[in-house]
Amino acid sequence: MSALAMTLQAFFTDRLVRQRQVSPNTVQAYRDTLRLLLVFASERHGKAPGKLDIDDLDAPLIGAFLDHLEHERQNGVRTRNARLAAIRSLFRYAALRHPEHAATIERVLAIPPKRFERRLVTYLTEAEIDALLAAPDRTTWTGRRDTALIGLAVQTGLRASELIGLTRADIHLGAGAHVSCTGKGRKQRITPLTSGTVAVMGVWLAERAGQPAEPLFPTRTGRALSRDAVERRLSGYVANAMAGCPSLSRKRVTMHVLRHSAAMRLLQAGIDTAVIALWLGHEQVETTQIYLHADLQIKERALERTAPITTKPGRFRPTDKLLAFLEAL
Fold first, then answer.
1. How many CA atoms lie within 13 A of 43 on its CB side?
2. Is 184 one of the catalytic residues?
3. Active-site choice (15, 189, 260, 282)
4. What is the pLDDT of residue 272?
5. Among this protein's residues, is 233 annotated catalytic?
6. For residue 45, what pLDDT is reported?
7. Does residue 159 have an active-site annotation?
8. Whole-number Cα distances in Å, 328 to 74, 314, 316, 324
9. Residues 146 and 79 both lie in one domain
């Protein structure tokens, strides 16, 4: 077995699972990245993946792999940077075990993440949310299930992985109604429910029945819904809702957009961003600032409170020729 193969196995079993105790989602993300890398390197070098060594994964090959992700697999810059982060994590671990490959490892670790344009978040208006909630066929079991799922997502802002991981025991509809979940980073979070959501979830729980540990939103066979299934069903409902709400055709609606919509509803209701960060389970309050940039009404209200500028308008005119040259650039 090559040094790379032994290091890779120890990286997952020792570094990620035993030392860092990362979540299963993190293990899967790292696994997918390194599997893609090994297949790519194997084709480039004409070696079986198990025969590859650390020096085979040098900086030029890693750079070519990242280009392959963007141009051939059509991955976005964010995905490209996430793949690079997984590779860098492996090489930092390899640096401790194999100092004889320090030169190769150092060059790989020097590869920088690519900068990207930060776009405004997409969210749904109240009219669009109403149209989306009306799209499922409530005469069917799956329609009633999906209505409850979408309504809970819009009100609580739970991530897709958190929603499909809920059990019947996670919903509490008595005094102080709330939903509890274990979110990103294994952080436990409690989110209150509105009276409308309580009514919808009460009807669904009565129909759902089952044991407390069973999935809250199951398939017909009783298993938990997959993320792909949820996204696929949401896309179908968005297409149906476009007839009554044409503005939906200009938006790419995903489960994460429903999370953004929940945050924007809180922000527009005057809730402080620190509370919204706690509501969404953000590690840092700064993450919630993206919603401030997306809300034009907040900026318009700030502009209305601004005193009119009374100073005489003018433009800076440099007196020095060198400064004039720099100003003209």
1. 8
2. yes
3. 282
4. 86
5. no
6. 92
7. yes
8. 39, 16, 12, 6
9. no
Residue 118 belongs to a domain? no
Amino acid letter, 179: V
CA distances from 262 to 22, 76, 155, 171 (A): 28, 25, 6, 18
158 and 295 part of one domain: yes
Over the stretch 160-174, which tens digit does the pLDDT of each residue have? 989 999 999 999 998
CA–CA gap between residue 195 and residue 129 (Å, rounded): 17
- 221 within some domain: yes
Q: What is the pTM of this model?
A: 0.72
The single residue listed with the structure tokens 């990245």 is: 33
Q: How far apart are CA 45 and CA 38, in angstroms?
A: 10
Is the domain of 90 the same as that of 232? Answer: no
260 flagged as catalytic: no
pLDDT of residue 182: 82
Instruction: Give pLDDT, residue 308.
Output: 62
Contact 196, 159 (CB under 8 A): no
Catalytic annotation, pick one of 30, 93, 123, 291 = 291
291 catalytic per annotation? yes
Q: Specify if 115 maps to a domain.
A: no
| Of the candidate ranges 39-53, 106-120, 298-312, the one whose mean pLDDT is the lowest | 298-312
Whole-number Å distance between alpha carbons of 36 and 31: 9
Domain count, the chain: 2
Residue 325's alpha-carbon distances to 45, 224, 319, in angstroms, are: 53, 66, 11
pLDDT at residue number 303: 65
